[in-house]
Structures are given as C-alpha cells and as structure tokens.
Amino acid sequence: GAPALAGLASLRSGAGLVTLAVPACVLATVSSFCPSYMTLALADDSCGVADEAVEQVAQFAAQEDVVAIGPGLGQSTAALALLRKLYTTLACPIVVDADGLNALAKDMSIIDSPPGSRILTPHAGEFARLTGETTGTDDQTRAIAAYDFAARDTSKQTTIILKGHRTVIATNDHYAFNTTGNPGMATGGTGDCLTGVVSALLAQDLAPFEAARLAAHVHGRAGDLARDALGEVSLMATDLIDYLPAAFRDQVTSSKVKASGR
C-alpha cells in the first residue's frame, strides 16, 4: 500500500509520469490500485528487494527527474545498499521517507555533500533514530533541531520536513512552519502521501525548499478538507488523495486573491 499511496498522491499533485519500482512478488497487487501509474518489477527474495535490484534501480533512476525512496522498502541489507547507491550517485532530487530514513540511520556518513538536492521527511521518532536526539515539543526547539540537522550537509543541498503539529520545513539557513493539518492525519499512510506530493512538485521544477513548503501546506489542507467532510475519527490516507485536487484549487484561488489585493 505504501508505494501505491505515494504514486497516487504524486499523480494527483501534477506529476506527468510515475513509475513504482517494487519487488516482483507484489507487483500485481501494487498495479491493481490504479492504472495511471507504471510499475517496474525488481529482483526480490524472502526479505523484499534483493541485491540484484540495486543496479537495476540505479540504472532506471538515472533517467528520471525525481526519485522518492522509502515507502514500503523494507529494512533488508539490500535496502540499505540501494539507499546508499542512489543517495551518493544521483544528481536529481531525492525524497527520503519511511524505510529510506531507517536505512539512512544505519549509515549517516552519506548525508554530507550529496551530488544533488535531498529532502528528508522524518517524524519525531525517525528524527531521533537519525540523529540520536529528540526534537522537543515547542516551535523554537523543533525548528532549531531541523535546522541543525540540515546543516550537517556542508554542500547545503538538504531540506528537512520535520513532520508533526506545525510541521517544520528547514534548510541550513532558514525555516518555516506549516499551519494546515489536523490530528486525524496521524494515521498510517499519510506520510507516504506527502512523499508523493513533494516528489511531484520537485518534478515541476520547484526549488526544494519551496516544493517542501507547498507540499506540506497542500497535504495539510487536503487533510482539513477531508476532516470537514468525514470527521477526524474516520479520516484515512486515501481520503487525502481524494481531496488533493480541491486543496490545489484552494491554493490557486488564494494566490489570485492575494495578487489582486496587491
């Protein structure tokens, strides 16, 4: 489900072509969710992606505009090798979430000076695994934590989306808070949706910080619209995808109003 949610959210956020690279054993299941994205069958074994998949994905990804890694990846040794290979060799933007962050936590040496922009999307627990530090709960402490983490990349190409109440978006020299979203979004799969939204906006040539800010806003706005229609208790990740079109329309309308006001 995780890669399917990310793929669907990416399509709903304006990506023209989306390919989900998944273990061959789950290809049929992933394909069944939607006919609008493509799939790539990866070499697999009993642990998920197999060692042979590393070069297979690397060759395919070298042709792509944006790569997202993590949702549904698993935590095998091959998953770590795949993350390391893509993170250190691809010049295109990479979004890292979920098991991609778990893999990164096992080898933080690769975070410094990547060959292209990187957006990491940890929640508080993943942040603690990555850094060995807690994020705190107040705005200032969380912002400083995200800022300091981004600054570990001396090439200044890393953006952090620290998820939670008032999600923090930070680079090594500035940060912002997101104010959309609600507690109903604290459910499985919503982070996979955010990965898809960020990836799609990067593919439309938004700069990483701007793509991260807009993605967090629209993702939260879709959650708020879903809450208003369905209630917080009943909200599911798939509801966010259903309400992404309305959230993007709201963003366009808001921008036009501000422009006319000036």
Quick description:
With 262 residues, the chain is α/β, with parallel strands linked by helices.
Overview of the structural elements:
There is one protein chain. By secondary structure, the protein is an alpha/beta fold. It is built from 10 helices and 10 strands. Strand 6 (94-96), helix 5 and strand 7 (118-120) form a beta-alpha-beta unit. The strands form 3 sheets. The protein has a 6-stranded mixed sheet, sandwiched between helices. The protein has a two-stranded parallel ribbon with strand order 1-2. Strands 3-4 form a two-stranded antiparallel sheet. 49% of the residues lie in helices and 13% in strands. The protein has helices spanning 2-12, 27-32, 53-61, 77-89, 99-105, 124-131, 139-150, 190-203, 208-230, 237-261; strands spanning 19-23, 38-42, 44-45, 48-49, 67-69, 94-96, 118-120, 158-162, 168-170, 175-177. It starts with a helix and ends with a helix. The model has no long low-confidence stretch (mean pLDDT 94). Helix 1 (2-12) crosses helix 8 (190-203), helix 8 crosses helix 10 and helix 9 packs across helix 10.
